[in-house]
């Protein structure tokens, strides 16, 4: 039996460990740094570093690392041991304040999108004391931000921290007008992490899964997810053992792993933690993904975090449950009980609605990857069109406010700041599941992020766009002679202007695509279409105004995202070429030969060989077709080499290479349905999804 409270956070240098291990004055100084961002004096850093090292060594650590999140969206670490030479050929274990606070990893191999000139390869990592140090694999990990020597962010954490600061400042401005005594506003996120588990042995026979994380070929299994027997169904013993092990490891790292269950697709599961600040929840989600993968190995599984590992069944997302709260414990997206609280709630709600409306493009861009393109707008929820689901009741309330009529649902007149909001239940209808951005009672659930994505990007965007609108609101309200009237007008007018973004219907339907177009909403279907919108003048202005991304930083990110898209499709295309040539066509040929020989022998016996003959013909024709499609894909790949501009190349990969891949797959998948099982070179969908 594990004692959860006892193991929880046992591998974390958290506040109670700090209190225990640090002299009182040092603890106080460090706490001030953590809470208020005050700089840490060198002598204090030395004492903290030494205490951290003693604690880590006691727990068996030999190394430390500055743990950071480069723009690849993964995490990176370079390990250093604590050893220092001492007299007589001995060593002592040492760790200085300088080593704690700043590191200099050789950064030249991380993508910088041209930010770091090659002659200045060294970026540096700087300790983020707001995220606790922890032990992983006998290494003391120090969460850090990663910057160039000019101070440009080379990572995902720095912009996120900047955006948290921005939304804090803007929200406080607004709250002050309501007489709030809050001194800090924090953005929170609870990311729901979806994943697939497949048998490791089977996985090891699939080049596509190994090289690209998704299946590039594969005919559908006789059974898919149509029986709806997996979702919330009994968890298989082997999977349950994995989940238990995973929970325990996450708890040791102070991660609030809370909910686990099967998901809609066979072999698909979900883990949700209790929410935390966007910075720490992001760190924790990165760790969760890493530990999911490592633990899978231990249990003979492979954990697939790809957004669409299998065609024809659901892909995996990372639902980003986002809200704002004060340091006095008020959730600013929680409808209140008094008229004043409600007025405040309505203002914050309106701010989010406007932010999403004004910056649909950036919200779409921040979740754009080659993998996620298989989800968004590809017959799967949510669509690529960004819209907000509020539910019928809350929408009714907003309509009543705008039009100044009675809210029919409960027959009340809603005057902002005077009336209490009519009670509205959290809408849990199925329709909301198809929405990319749903209000779920006291938070917004952004459902577009893909399972593999770092939470940093979406939350950086959410924090920044809401900061902008709140700031604009504060500009208006601070100048107002009559606060109540100004508030009333502001809410009414803002809802009027932004209400095209509100959609409570079925996001899957073709009707919605047409309706959205009529409303003037964007439908950015693919990564090459979505990513460049980051650079629209209004977006460059937004991010530079709040010092979240300078224009140069933004350009570098666009470059990296498009480059990553091209590389992903290129690797997928090359893997398909390899599999078709070396596995699929040879398997077809072997089976054809077997059938042809059988037919000949059987004919000699005077038997009816129509089965063999027909199949030989059909397979030969499909093999020829596959061969043609394969050649076309090879040709398309060769042409890609002549394109230098990354945006043109990304569009080429999308419009030409990706299409050629689809055609090759269609032909090859049909062969799979005709070839005898023992001739087939790798495990099928049926085996991967159901034989666990
Ligand atoms: P669902 O109905 O989507 O399953 P849950 O209550 O299970 O909703 O919450 C899903 C995720 O949302 C969890 O990670 C949870 O911690 C997080 N969450 C709950 N409340 C908030 C909040 N106020 N802000 C941010 N995340 C939240
Ligand atoms: Mg949910």
From TrEMBL:
Keywords: Ligase. The keyword Ligase applies. The keyword Ligase applies. Residues 156-584 form the GS catalytic domain. It holds the Pfam family GSIII_N. It is an enzyme of class 6 (ligase). InterPro entries: Gln-synt_C, Gln_synt_N, Gln_synth/guanido_kin_cat_dom, Gln_synth_cat_dom, Gln_synth_gly_rich_site, GS_Type-3, GSIII_N. GO terms for biological process: glutamine biosynthetic process. Its EC number is 6.3.1.2. GO terms for molecular function: glutamine synthetase activity. Residues 62-151 form the GS beta-grasp domain. Belongs to the glutamine synthetase family. This is Glutamine synthetase type III. It comes from Ruminococcus albus 8.
């Amino acid at each position: 039996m594990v004692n959860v409270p006892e193991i929880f956070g046992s591998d974390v240098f958290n506040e109670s460990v700090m209190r225990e291990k640090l002299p009182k004055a040092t603890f106080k100084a460090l706490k001030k740094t953590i809470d208020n961002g005050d700089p840490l004096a060198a002598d204090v850093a030395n004492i903290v570093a030494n205490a951290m090292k003693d604690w880590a060594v006691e727990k068996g650590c030999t190394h430390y690392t500055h743990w950071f999140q480069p723009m690849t969206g993964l995490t990176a670490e370079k390990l250093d041991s604590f050893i220092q030479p001492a007299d007589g050929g001995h060593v002592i274990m040492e760790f200085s304040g300088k080593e704690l606070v700043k590191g200099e990893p050789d950064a030249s191999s991380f993508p910088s999108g041209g930010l770091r000139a090659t002659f200045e390869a060294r970026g540096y990592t700087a300790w983020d004391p707001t995220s606790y140090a922890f032990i992983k694999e006998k290494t003391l990990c120090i969460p850090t931000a990663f910057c160039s020597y000019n101070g440009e962010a080379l990572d995902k954490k720095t912009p996120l921290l900047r955006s948290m600061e921005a939304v804090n400042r803007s929200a406080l401005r607004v709250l002050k007008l309501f007489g709030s005594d809050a001194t800090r506003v924090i953005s929170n996120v609870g990311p729901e992490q979806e994943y697939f588990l497949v048998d490791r042995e089977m996985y090891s026979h699939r080049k596509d899964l190994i090289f690209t994380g998704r299946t590039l070929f594969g005919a559908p299994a006789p059974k898919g997810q149509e029986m709806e027997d997996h979702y919330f169904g009994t968890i298989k013993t082997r999977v349950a053992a994995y989940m238990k092990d995973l929970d325990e490891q996450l708890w040791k790292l102070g991660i609030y792993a809370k909910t686990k269950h099967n998901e809609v697709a066979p072999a698909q599961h979900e883990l949700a933690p209790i929410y935390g600040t966007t910075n720490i929840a992001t760190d924790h989600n990165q760790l969760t993904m890493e530990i999911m993968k490592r633990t899978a190995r231990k249990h003979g599984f492979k954990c697939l975090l790809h957004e669409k590992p299998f065609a024809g069944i659901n892909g995996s997302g990372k639902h980003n449950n986002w809200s704002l709260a004060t340091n006095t414990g008020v959730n600013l997206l929680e409808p209140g009980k008094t008229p004043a609280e409600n007025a405040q709630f309505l203002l914050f709600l309106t701010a989010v609605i406007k932010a999403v409306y004004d910056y649909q493009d950036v919200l779409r861009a921040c979740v754009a990857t080659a993998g996620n393109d298989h989800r968004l707008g590809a017959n799967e929820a949510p669509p690529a069109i960004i819209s907000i689901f509020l539910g019928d009741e809350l929408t009714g309330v907003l309509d009543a406010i705008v039009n100044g009529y009675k809210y029919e649902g409960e027959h009340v007149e809603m005057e902002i700041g005077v009336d209490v909001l009519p009670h509205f239940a959290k809408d849990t209808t199925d329709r909301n599941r198809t929405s990319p951005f749903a209000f779920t009672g006291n938070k917004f659930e952004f459902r577009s992020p893909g399972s593999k994505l770092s939470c940093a990007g979406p939350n950086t965007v959410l924090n920044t766009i809401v900061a902008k609108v709140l700031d604009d609101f504060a500009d208006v309200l601070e100048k107002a002679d009559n606060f109540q009237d100004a508030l009333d007008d502001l809410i009414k007018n803002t809802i009027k202007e932004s209400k095209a973004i509100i959609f409570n219907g079925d996001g899957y339907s073709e009707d919605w695509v047409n309706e959205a177009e009529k409303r003037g909403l964007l439908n950015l279907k693919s990564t090459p279409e979505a990513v460049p919108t980051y650079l629209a003048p209004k977006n460059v202005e937004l991010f530079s105004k709040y010092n979240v991304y300078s224009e140069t930083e933004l350009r570098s990110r666009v470059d990296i995202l498009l480059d990553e898209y091209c590389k992903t499709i290129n690797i997928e295309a090359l893997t398909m070429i390899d599999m078709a040539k070396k596995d699929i066509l040879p398997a077809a040929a072997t089976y054809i030969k077997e059938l042809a020989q059988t037919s000949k022998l059987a004919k000699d016996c005077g038997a009816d060989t129509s089965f063999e003959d027909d199949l030989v013909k059909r397979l030969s024709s499909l093999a020829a077709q596959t061969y043609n499609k394969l050649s076309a894909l090879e040709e398309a790949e060769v042409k890609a080499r002549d394109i230098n501009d990354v945006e043109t190349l990304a569009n080429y990969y999308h419009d030409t290479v990706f299409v050629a891949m689809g055609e090759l797959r269609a032909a090859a998948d049909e062969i799979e349905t005709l070839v005898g099982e023992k001739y087939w070179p790798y495990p099928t969908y049926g085996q991967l999804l159901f034989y666990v």
